[in-house]
Amino acid sequence: MQAHSSQLEAHSSQLIAHSKKMKKSFRLSALKSLVLSAISYQLSASATSDTQTPSNASSTENTMNRALRVVLAGGGTGGHLFPGIAIANAFRAHNPETRISFISTGNPLEKSVLSKAGYDLECIQVAGIKGRGIWNQITSALKIPGAILAAMRILKTFSPDLIIGLGSYSAGPVVIGAWLMRIPIAIHEQNILPGITNRILARFADRIYISFENTQLDRNPAKVYWTGNPVRNEILQAADPVSDKTAPDAAMKRFTVLIIGGSQGAHRINMVMTKALKHLRNPEGLHFIHQTGEADENDVREAYRSTSISATARAFFDDMAEQYQMADLIICRAGATTVAEITALGKAAIFIPFPFAADDHQTRNASDLANDGAAELIPEQELDAERLGAKINHYRDHQADLNKMAARARRYGKPGAAKHIVTECYRMLTA
Length: 431
Known about the structure:
By secondary structure, the protein is of the alpha/beta class. It folds into two domains: 53-230 and 416-430, Glycogen Phosphorylase B (Rossmann fold); 238-411, Rossmann fold. 48% of the residues lie in helices and 13% in strands. It has helices at 2-45, 78-94, 108-117, 134-158, 171-180, 196-201, 233-236, 249-252, 267-276, 297-307, 320-326, 336-345, 361-371, 385-397, 399-411, 417-430, and strands spanning 69-73, 99-104, 120-123, 162-165, 185-189, 207-210, 224-226, 255-260, 286-291, 310-314, 329-332, 348-351, 376-377. The strands form two sheets. Strands 3-2-1-4-5-6-7 form a seven-stranded parallel sheet, with helices on both faces. It has a six-stranded parallel sheet with strand order 10-9-8-11-12-13, sandwiched between helices. β11, α12 and β12 (348-351) form a beta-alpha-beta unit.
């Protein structure tokens, strides 16, 4: 009996060791399965004619102004989606006859934002792998081959000249499908530290556009271009000074602080800000514009009401250009799109990076600006109500410091990023 028990314990130990080994190597195996399934499909598809490069991709009309068919792949969050919309708008501005389609998972944010922007969205079924637990990772990996095939069917119907991957896991199957169909591929990386999707897709891309000069994404520098992170035209228009005719009286007479925490808000910032209200000097001289996210909207609004401090608190703002324009000081996370918008506008900002962002990339996004005096950076673990209140008091009372920080921030801005990407895409297609 004892011998049998020892055998069971030994067998159990082997199973546990095997499980740990499988979990450790699963991510690499999943990525390998993606590539292998793609190559397998390419071999089977090469015998037929229906997966060849679309005829318009090899058009003899190789000019820098011709109308194109462009697919933008990926999204998921505003940080991926809004730069994609900026690129799409730049393509249309270059030639209004250009046709644009987005391909992603079709979450509520994507559907809402793209519908309002006037762009079509095609959906595929795919899920992320990183950080989801071993069994969810297995389920997600099993969806990849089907997502590649679904993406290829969409591409065949749309017949694009070009695919641009925006990052996020939904871009993977589309870019792989485009590679199998020999469609030219570009990818754009928003963050200073590339995400896992773009690190994989870089090997398939013909062009790689990066937002930060020191982003390391590919060993072949010939196909890497530092363009900056595209910013939507309506946001860029907020760089114009607010006029007396358009500004609400509350914001015209008061120092205006804009607080934004991404499309879902930032609970930690919201709660600290409500407690910081009691640390503000002369609050009658302040006005707050606070994007709270749905969960905290009522609590934040009540905090301002109870202290009689002027504020506009909403779950989400559709008119961010107007809010940016009104702001003297911005308190926000440090997502790549937010950093790009603030620097393109030349606004003073206090960045509070989301500490659980992958590889702490938000801190890296804002570090260079903070080190150069182009922004303030407060790690979330060091954030408290008294400190935040003191920062607001300081910049309200020291306009010279505020202006200096804003001017330095503007030096980092790349307002022409979307146009730059469009120009380089045309050059790639006509090379």
